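Running low. Got one?
___
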Amino acid sequence: MRGDFSAWNKDRARNFRGTLHQQGRVLLDRDWNAQTEILNEWQETAGRDAFGAGVAAVPAEVPQSFRIVEAKIDAGTVRLSAGKGRVWADGLLVEAARDISNRVATYLNLPSGTVPVPADTPRDTVILETWLEELSPFQNPGLLIEPALGGVDTTERVQTAYRFRLFRMGEGETCGSIIPGLKDDSSAKGKLRVRLNPNAMSDGDCPVVESGGYTGFEHRLYRIEIAETAKTGSWFKWSQFNGGLVGTGDFDAVSRKVSLHGNKNAIVHSGLGEFYLEALELDEKFGYWRVIYGAKATLGPDHTLSLPPSGDPGEFLGALPPAPVSGKRFFRLWNGIEPIGSFVAAERDLPDLVGIKLQFDTGAAEKYTPADFWTFEVRAGGVGNPMLLVGDPASSAGAPPQGIFYHRVPLAEITWVGTVVSGGDIEDCRRVFQPLTKIKTCCTYRVGDGIHSHGDFTKIQDAVNALPREGGEICVLPGSYSENVHIHERTNIVIHGCGTHTRVGAVAADAGAARPAFLLTHSAAIEIRDMAIEAGPRSAMHIENSCHVTVRRCLVQMRDVYSLWQAVYSRGDDILLEENTIEILPADGRPPEATVPPRPGDALAPAGVNTPPHPVVLAGAARGGIQLAGGSDRVRILNNLIQGGTWNGITLGSLEKEEAEPEREDTPDIPETGDHCEKCKPTDLTGDTRSADGKPRFVSAGDLYDIEISGNRIADMGINGIGVVRFFDLMKDGDMIGVHGLHICDNVITRCMRLEAAKIGKAMERLLGYGGISLAKVRDLRILRNEIFGNGNSQPVPICGVYALFVQGLQIDDNRIFDNGHGSDVPGDLVTGGVRGGVHVWMVLPMVEKSAHGKYESSFIHRKSVRNGLSSCVMRDNFIVAPLGRAVTFFALGPSVVARNRLVTQGTTGKGLDLLAATVLVANLGISNEWTLGLFLMLVLSIKPKLTTVDSSTYCTLAKMYGTIKSEKPPALWPPLIRNWSTGKLLFTENQVTLDVIDEPTKVALSSVMALSLDDVGMVDNQCEVSSTNFFVASNAFVGGGSVRVVDNRFSETWMRAFRSAVTVAGMNTTTDNQSTHCIKAKALLPGMLIFKDNLAMVEAFCPGQCKQG
């Protein structure tokens, strides 16, 4: 602050909070000024902490305050218009009593005089630059000077000054990102050191100071300030009155003199005869007091100030100003002005020669800003002064300026599309805030429907459009909103409601014109949560080519109208669908309302025992559920309730036309044909629609990667609980829907496949499966801790608990799979063809790692990828009951484990593979790692007559030699045959297997359990039983392999319903320590490779010698 002060506090870091006056004491100006400075410091700090540093905080009561409404380029300058009101700028309160119009703005980071070039479409941020400055009584005498005192000045005022600046933005910069760069950093500015001349002491016994120190005769407060000039280089001016010597007068352009008027006496008796004069004006174009003229001046005997001629070197800025519109011209007088460059190389005395030396650290003009200042006090009359007046006491280095401190905040971002910019090309950067008593949320905007609630907007779409480019949060207050919200090419947006009190309904329209309730396209980091969403015929939530999208805790209700679209349709990456309810609206179209439950004693009272659940609305047309389209990666579907639709609960994959262009769009399913009866036809998941040339019309739109489906309850769906969009005829170049990394955990899937299914054609009988989970090809399939039960309607269609065509790496653990499909009460001639049972997987391949070219390869393709060591198939701790069909069926390649399961079949078809095995059919195509090609050839040759006469010793030597070493030059070792294949170890252990066909009509099967492998089969510690009246099996268990170990098992069959309890066949056969009802037959294909002992058969208790080996 400039003013005729005795001292000025330069240090705010003392935690002062006020001044205390004492009775009978002297009252100094510095005490009053300290109180003002302490108050200003507290207000700035509190404002910055409360409203935010570096931001323009606008009270919600005056939301248009300082809002930039127009920017234009006019006569080589940028002019801005803004609304009146108040704003907290970096904690400093700024007020405008009326609208601001055509205010000039200059650049902060571009050369002076720069004007935007609209052809380049540059982006500028409008900056509000504010600072505190003094207002002399002579600047506004009508307000601050009391005429009754004779026109003398008394006190000054502290006011907030402001102006508009521009900041040219770079690529990727935003209003928020530039805030740190706007801060006024005094440490980066030029520095000044001020010292007194060193003292010179006399010699002798009583030394005295002969020279040095401050030699003036008055106590002074010096001010060193950077001057604004038109000269080359940087200049400073100084004042022994802290810049407080001011006045008013009339400037005569002819005589080049200033007639003194205000404060004349102080100027005449200041003790100075020469000055540096600055004339100031409140410039309406810029909006603040600015220096318009600077020149050296001399006080004459007539008490006038003489100015140099026009163009004289004594003029430093501008031209002699005309008389103001009213009153006298205000000016400020300084002791003098000097170039900074003369005070850089070495210390130099201040020109008034009172013992004060100055030195600047640099003369670079960019290091100094006009009005930067330093102040210091000196005291005369023997009062001691510190030798270092300005600088670091520890290092004696120079100090940065004490001020002025500029507060800069962004107001708006302008995209220069023309010479005049308004509307949407001006993006608001201000932060509108509610008072503390009204703050309820952290939302950028609030949306109310105008009836039940009130917010900043009445439409969600309007709020989305108003968000800045960097996104924001929208609170949708309670109410009903009929609209279609489209979020396109946006990021970082959160839209949340107040639970079901917020209801968004898609605008009802015909199928061709209908739009989703929420459509997300080409967007990222979007979250929608806590609201009810109604839609149909299009999806309630459609996510297209977007990533990092979350839909959480929403009630999604579909109108029961026919459509190909499911309730949630997603094609994107890193999607999270969590804790949503997806269901069907009642027939009347009104969402069900919660009611107060009956009191205890009523049959439906919640306190009653085993009260029925609320009825589920079952769709007749709407698909409901969720669909993950082709190309989706890293999707998590967690803890949702999905019920009532006519399609899959969760559909994997989507379709596209085979002949489509590269920029093709997928479709959720095969489009309608226009046949009005098509909507009434039974469900058919086959995708064999073909063009005129016989080629498939539709194929998969792409595989899915890393899909997690956990904790969901999927009930009462028309088709599968979880299934692919279509199955294709692989014999006719059909495609498959593929998933890489599918984890299905902790779900409940029940009462699905409630609709009639079309009869499966012969070509697709083995390639299509319905039921709880129905898949085509999967890599890394994990089905863990699920309950899959009660799926299948009254029709005798084939139903499975789990079905898949091809799987690479299968883990099925700790599941309960039961009561899926119909049992033996269905007449045999009504049982339609197809795959049915508990778990049915046609082919399980080993897991392999990525090859060098980044694609997944199955193990029997060229070995460019490596095994990861995992088992191909693992089934443990499951409870599987199949009403009709085998409990478990799979054909594997690679190590497989079936352990600790309860496996039950309650009925068989008596057809197809059911004739081979009625309950369990597991087979492995892998071979033992023991075999080399040479050893295998030796085995083949041993069958020839020429080798049958070779003695065993010679044969052993030949086997060791030719089974190990290749007969080539140079010799090499045979690799194992599994180098380009896989092992086939099959472990079947600790299972309880039951064929429960007591009430079945007369049927036969080769076995109940069949376990086969070209490698080793370990069948250990199982309990296998056949309970039958009219059903006969040749053998309870049939085990065959390269080697088998059937040990410690219990085979039990209803008396005489099995020809044998077990038949084991292998190259090496160990069948020991088993208990059975009927006889066990064991055979070794290699001589001497049979161990058959310690087995007990109950039949021999009645018929001794019945079970003779051989």
Q: What stands out?
A: Residues 203-390 form one domain. Residues 851-865 have pLDDT under 50 and may be disordered. Residues 29-51 form the longest helix (23 residues). The chain has nine helices and 76 strands.
